[in-house]
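[SOLVED] Need 3D model of a three-part complex

Original post:
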Amino acid sequence: MTDYKASSSSSKHGSVSSSMPSSLLVAKPANLQCKDFQEYLRTRSPDTLEKLYNYPTICLAVYRELPEIARQFVIRILFVEQPVPQAVVASWGSQYYAKEQASSTNILTELNVWRTTTIPGGLSAWELCPTFKKNLKIALLGGGKPWSMSHTLEKDSKPRDIAFLDQYAMSRWRCVLHYMVGTGGANKGQGSEVISPDAVRILLHANLMKRDETGITITRQGFQFLLLDTQSQVWHFMLMYLDTCEERGLSLPECLSMLFQLSFSTLGRDYSSEGMNPKMLAFLQHLREFGLVFQRKRKEGRFYPTRLALNVTNKAATVPAVVLEDEKSQESGYIVVETNYRVYAYTDSPLQVAVLGLFTELLYRFPNLVVGVLTRDSVRQALRGGITADQIISYLEQYSHPNMKLTESAIKSKSPLPPTVVDQIKLWELERNRFTYTEGVVYNQFLSQADFITLRDYAQSINVLVWQNERTRTMVVTKNGHDDVKRFWKKFSKNAS
Amino acid sequence: MDHHGEEEDPKEYRWETGYEKTWEAIKEDDDGLLDGAIADIIQKAKRKRQAQKTMQNKLGMMRHLYLMLDCSESMSVPDLKPTRLLCTLKLLEKFIEEFFDQNPISQMGLIVLKGKRAEKVTELTGTAKLHLKALDGLHKINLVGEPSLQNGLDLALKTLKVVPSHASREVLIIMGSLTTCDPIDINITIDALKQESIRCSVISLSAEIHVCRHLTQQTGGTYGAVLDDSHYRDQLLSHVDPPPAAQTQENSLIKMGFPHARQDEGKEKDPPLSMCMCHIENADEPSKITSAGFHCPQCHSKYCELPVECQTCGLTLVSAPHLARSYHHLFPVQNFTELVYNGQAAICYACQKPLTEATDKNVYRCEACSQIFCLDCDIFIHETLHTCVGCVTIPGAAAQVHARKPQAPPMGMLLGSSLGQRF
Amino acid sequence: MEKAAAENDDSGSVSLLVIVLDTNPSQRIVRQNPDNLSQCLDATVAFGNAHLMQKAQNKLAVISCHHHATDFLYPMPVKQLEVRQVDGQYEVFSLVEKTVKQRLSHIITNAPKITQPNESLLAGSMSMALCYVARMQRNAQPGVKIHSRILVLTGSNECASQYMTYMNVFFTAQKLGIVIDVCALDKSLSLLQQGCDITGGQYLRLTQLDGLLQYLLWVFLPDPKTRQMLVLPPPTKVDYRAACFCHREMIDIGYVCSVCLSIFCKFSPICTTCHTVFKVPGPLPPKPKKKKKV
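Solution:
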């Protein structure tokens, strides 16, 4: 047994040998983590959730985030006064979809939407969280207090139309993005915009930018952030803002509820800030800076939510699915990708050109058109910079020209991009990932085959085995599993001796 | 090989026809754009098609059609894009859907010709789904060898022979190859087809072939060689409407069964489990033992779908809605009058679309109920819905419409007796 | 990223619900107790809002089938009402509620007095719903799939005279992939039941109005895709038998005229509807012998 001890101490990192230094292998660079609303909620404590559920707006938003089956379950027991036995709820779902049903049940529990109780007779039952139930009902059927921003207003003498609001919102939001790109250097002066220290603090907090000796520069996460669609950018940014809102003395539930009120408002309509407390007014000013609301003057009691604020958690809903004859459609796509890897971007915005330049080789610039080409080198450069292939593809899809969506292949495959280009970008990424690195501990020099097999089977049974070879009696377990396996071995060898 | 169409139509050649100034139909609008002009042309084409449709078709009640598809090497030629085969499959999808939509109690089967052999891909059945699935499978078929027209015709003949004679029997051949490789003299087969009055039509994707034309002439079918894909489409879709031969067919009363899912009155328990006849010989998809299905009222064999011909006693089994599906041929919606829009109505009566002078140059009025419709609804009503929305929502007009149409009797699922006045 | 792809799959689809509400005062349940109508209306509005609550992209339309006309209750064709919140209800939901109630009261006050019970032209209202759905589908953005369904809520008896229209509506719906759901509040409706069967919708017959909303939410709220995941009432067997034109009796075996498709229970040498003379006299054998082109 002493032999074994010696061997265990000779463990080394990395199951696959490689010429690169091991520290680099193991520490995978942190990518931008974008949580959706559901994930965000799941990381909140039950107390916080309970507080959040005091607002009908939040309940409505939470409800819409639930999976399909969960939504049906909630609505079925919304009007039932008593708790419903769990067996009954389970019988509602088809047995072919048991997995979906189980995950829905879990999510409802995790989000504290419902909880287990026992009913007379000892059966366990589900009961909707009373706060959630009450406030969801209010949102659906009415009752309760009006939302904080819906005081009646006199008619605006100069109402703002949707086109104006869109333009305003994008110009504000681009300020933030320009700031991120612009501070790096070249086009200072006209390109870089001034944003408030608060906004800078959020960018730093979100790790989208970092402070170093030369000043504030954009991080790799920052670049990834730029590739997101606007809706996701806003949502990520707001989440980061909410993280820091307690420091500012703002209450999280209030801010979140305000955010969702905006998200559920009607585009092109004015709302009143009357009756808001000073903290909320401060929050409103921040939203105004980022372009989520439009307000003529700081003190004016009237504001217009913009498209950025609408359906903040759900990007699919922001673009109208059905354009009626009386509504104007507005196109956002400007990129055409051809099967020969050429990229044509109809834009004059330096920001869009800069982002495109991250992963294409730019060939020509015209007043309203940039032509580039996707090459292996340009894409690999982006990949090395920490941008993923999926991010590149989704960026191109997001901003693809409306005509691209009308091609036959686009209608079939749902992606407006030529499949060859999509596949090639993915292949370029895959060719960088021929190794997968796992930190581990090597066990070798076993005295007997039986010892080896026992230990190997144990490691396998607790899912920590990375690699094994019976002939050389060598095995590698993950670093986390090492302690368990060691303990097992000690116990086993003690019993054996 | 004959020259295409020489003996019938001397003006067939393109260079012999008049000089078409196709570009003169297109005019730029004030902004120098063509969109408006093109939309106009499309609108006119749509309306024209609609106007033609009102000609009364006699219903070819039951068609039995074998679709014979050449899958020889010649189908890989890329003169139709991307290849002849892929282009054909795409068009056939549309054809099959239209066929069953227009001929609800008809049946179709699919035969593939390749490597000198004929292979039956689908049996004669009345469900489009089965054929579409089979078509999907043909995308990956290996295109080899020569086709054998005779083998294919023999195979079709064998099945069509036993089809009851009140139904029309047809074969539609899509031929890519210029040659056919047959075991014996094909004239024997052609004579047999003629004997059984099976109507054979051919669409050729390359050039006209003498033996094909001979076949069509002998059996009373049509022959066509395609010019390009849109011409191909028109040729194919012309076979959706019942052929003229079916109109000269003798009229008869056809005995039909109306099966219903069996219910034992008063008893709650499920009907006994049984096997359906349609899948009983199908090795790929063996018939399942279930309690649901349609039972032939004559011999009580069970089938899982309608319409079908009973394999045991030969009775045609249909359901009342299948017959009703064809009624729109008998009671078409009268054409609407085209009016220049000048504020006759603020919105389209049917779809609620706001009408404006800018977007709606013309509006359409139903002469029976005087309601105003937009162009899209005009086309939708005539091509798909077959019911004037105004006439059936306004009580006075509705009463008139209903008076001339079949009605369900009090119990609800029957066909009424007031058909007569129209004939 | 995988998740994003899955969501993409979903995001391209919009669920459109068109509710056809029978508001005809001649319905038995309304004649017995006029309050029943407002109860139905409340349930319909709450149900419509529950549909809108499912997803931000969901769309709703409500059509009333009154004794003299069919009208859209929601949305307004041109300009929507200006509605401000008065309580905690979501603005969009208040808009639906206000619009529907305002329009319906307008219709009821302007309706001509009825002297005798009038049938509801439900088939007509459904055909109007189809035109609306067709328009929505025409206007869909590229890449967006619209899943549409029509829910019919009625306490009327179905009227045999509308048979043709019903059938045209059902086949059109089937062709366009529109699901027809029916909630019968009084008598059972066999024609509409056929429509549900043809289009793959749910048919539900209630004998009382208590708990109407619960029934609606339970059976009709899930969209057809979700319905597979849930246990719902099994489809009832639909009787597709035909009746003969001569005696109007249900028949199992009959004779069909090859020209006009009239159905007869006995063989006759002349078609009584289209006066076609049939060439083969006498009872037709199950397999007639070849008679053409000898």
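Edit: Chain C touches chain B through 86 residues (CB under 8 Å).
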